[in-house]
């Protein structure tokens, strides 16, 4: 028996200022109110410039690591984190390579900028380290008072590994010294004396200064020019007035294993102003089997669409590759016998190591593909519905469940949090804001009576099961798809001020007859969204009747 697909929430004023919910996410720095967003596109260098680009990257890595080691103090970390403007100005403009080679002033600035960014990036990690040490000394919970729980867990694991080898240093800078590992050069401090980028309506014209060797003199630097034909998407942005900002030079390895050198061109694109009044929004519940479940709701909590399920066969592919990685790791362990010994079959060992690296790269590529796929579909649906906001659970401090094997591993890759990050800047371009609500009780609270329910395997089996796909409320008998209930509760949490209240008038709803007037606004979705989107039946299920399959 189907229930009506509309709901109305009777809200009451609640005060959640202390917890800071709901939270509005903005691209870039927190609290930014800019009307522009930044997009990055890769422009490959010609093969004849590969050797010269490699020379510049090796010079950058060498001197950046020297500068980092020289200025690696807690005082400098705090000072660079609070520094306003370009980081290279913190170090001054002294020539640090006078006795070894000639570096143009803008090249030196790029190296100093990279070193400053690396040092400043450790500020939050250092503060977390100090807080954990303080808690350990006083016998408190190690993560008590830590703002970023995910970072805190990472630092705590690292601290415990240090403790196994010896005593834990009092100062963070004694525990580690960072180094530039990924080859990269930043052109942010340049004013046209190291690189020039110009768009002529068809091609992106680039003129770049590169060295002929790794210890260049003044005459070993030369200017090199090439053109890159802008493809359709890039051309439309540039023709639409996007501004080209300073790029960065990187060395990458593509999926085939070939090494290439690319310029990451940064485009500053104008975006629509955020809508101040939220009349309707899309509530999203992220998961694994169903990557996302969406429900369109209005500001009063009325459900305006059927639930929409986004699935992907790539999850199964991820699980298969992870199992293959586990098998390869077992073979490598068998060859090694014991730690730090020479493998019995060196050639076979080398092939296994190469296959292991290849599998991890495939996983990284697939995870990023899933993240962009889901975030793009969510934003497209929000635009199609005319929504003013997209509401997610705040998963930044989410800890994956234990005992789920491959699924636990997928959750631990934090790809759900990345989906939210990608959705922020994609939605911002259309003037749609992304809001986070408190995730507590969104999977346990009944959307009908406000009581606590639990997951079950099927409508015929009402035994509690943590991995079940259905939700059952023993108080009122309500039963529905588990992810659908989660999406409803995410929307209800937003309407109620950012957090669900257990029981009470503010957490109940009343059914509305046919809220979409007999038509669902998702009827034409498959043609508009280049992604597998499945549509659920209207409403949800009660009792032990037969459950219809999704359309």
Model description:
The structure is a single chain. The protein starts with 5 loop residues before the first strand and ends in a 16-residue tail after the last strand. It folds into 2 domains: 6-28 and 274-535, no CATH class; 55-175, no CATH class. It has helices at residues 50-70, 74-82, 88-91, 105-120, 123-138, 149-165, 172-175, 232-239, 314-336, 346-385, 406-412, 415-428, 482-495, 525-528; strands at residues 6-9, 23-25, 36-44, 184-186, 195-199, 203-211, 221-229, 243-253, 259-270, 280-286, 292-298, 308-310, 389-393, 433-437, 454-458, 461-464, 470-472, 479-481, 509-512, 533-535. It is built from 14 helices and 20 strands. Strands 2-14-13-10-11-12-20 form a 7-stranded mixed β-sheet, with helices on both faces. A 4-stranded antiparallel β-sheet has the order 3-9-8-4. It is globular, with a radius of gyration of 27 Å. Helix 1 packs across helix 4, helix 5 (123-138) packs across helix 6 (149-165) and helix 9 (314-336) runs antiparallel to helix 10 (346-385). Mean pLDDT is 79; it is low at 1-18, 29-33 and 504-551. It is of the alpha+beta class and 551 residues long.
């Amino acid at each position: 028996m189907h229930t009506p697909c509309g709901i109305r929430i009777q809200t009451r004023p609640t005060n959640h200022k202390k917890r800071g919910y709901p939270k509005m996410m903005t691209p870039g720095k927190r609290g930014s109110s800019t009307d522009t967003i930044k997009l990055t596109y890769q422009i490959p260098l010609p093969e004849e410039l590969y050797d010269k680009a490699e020379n510049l990257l090796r010079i950058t890595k060498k001197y950046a690591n020297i500068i980092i080691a020289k200025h690696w103090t807690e005082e400098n970390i705090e000072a660079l984190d609070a520094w306003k403007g370009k980081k290279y100005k913190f170090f001054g403009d002294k020539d640090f390579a006078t006795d070894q080679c000639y570096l143009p002033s803008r090249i030196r600035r790029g190296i100093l900028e990279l070193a400053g960014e690396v040092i400043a990036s450790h500020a939050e990690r250092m503060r977390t380290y100090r807080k954990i040490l303080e808690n350990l000394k006083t016998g408190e919970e190690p993560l008590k008072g830590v703002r970023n729980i995910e970072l805190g867990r990472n630092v705590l694991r690292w601290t415990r590994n240090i403790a196994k080898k010896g005593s834990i240093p009092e100062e963070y800078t004694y525990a580690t010294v960072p180094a530039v590992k990924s080859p990269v050069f930043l052109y942010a401090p340049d004013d046209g004396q190291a690189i020039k980028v110009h768009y002529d309506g068809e091609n992106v014209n680039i003129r770049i200064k590169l060295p002929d060797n790794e210890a260049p003199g003044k005459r070993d630097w030369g200017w090199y020019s090439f053109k890159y034909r802008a493809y359709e998407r890039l051309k439309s942005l540039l023709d639409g007035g996007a501004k080209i900002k300073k790029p960065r030079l990187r060395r990458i390895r593509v999926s085939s294993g070939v090494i290439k050198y690319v310029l990451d061109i940064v485009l500053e694109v104008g975006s629509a102003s955020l809508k101040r009044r939220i009349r309707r929004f899309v509530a999203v519940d992220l998961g694994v089997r169903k990557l996302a479940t969406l429900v369109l709701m209005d500001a009063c909590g009325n459900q305006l669409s059927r639930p929409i399920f986004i699935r992907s066969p790539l999850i199964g592919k991820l699980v298969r590759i992870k199992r293959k990685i586990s098998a390869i790791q077992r073979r490598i362990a068998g060859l090694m016998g014991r730690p730090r010994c020479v493998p019995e079959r060196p050639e076979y060992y080398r092939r296994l190591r190469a296959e292991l690296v290849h599998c991890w790269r495939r996983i990284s590529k697939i995870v990023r593909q899933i993240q962009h796929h889901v975030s793009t579909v969510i934003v497209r649906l929000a635009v199609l519905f005319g929504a003013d906001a997209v509401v997610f659970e705040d998963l930044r401090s989410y800890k994956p469940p234990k005992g789920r094997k491959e699924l636990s591993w997928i959750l631990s890759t934090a790809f759900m949090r990345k989906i939210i990050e990608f959705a922020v800047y994609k939605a911002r371009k259309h003037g749609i804001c992304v809001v986070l609500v408190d995730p507590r009780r969104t999977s346990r609270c009944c959307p009908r009576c406000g009581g606590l329910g639990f997951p079950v395997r099927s409508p015929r089996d009402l035994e509690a099961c943590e991995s079940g796909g259905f939700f059952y409320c023993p108080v009122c008998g309500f039963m529905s798809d588990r992810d659908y209930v989660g999406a409803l509760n995410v929307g209800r949490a937003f309407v109620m001020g950012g957090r669900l209240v257990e029981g009470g008038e503010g957490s109940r709803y009343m059914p509305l007859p046919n809220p979409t007037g007999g038509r669902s606004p998702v009827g034409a979705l498959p043609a508009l969204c280049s992604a597998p989107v499945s549509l659920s039946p209207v409403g949800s299920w009660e009792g032990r009747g037969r459950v219809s399959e999704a359309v």
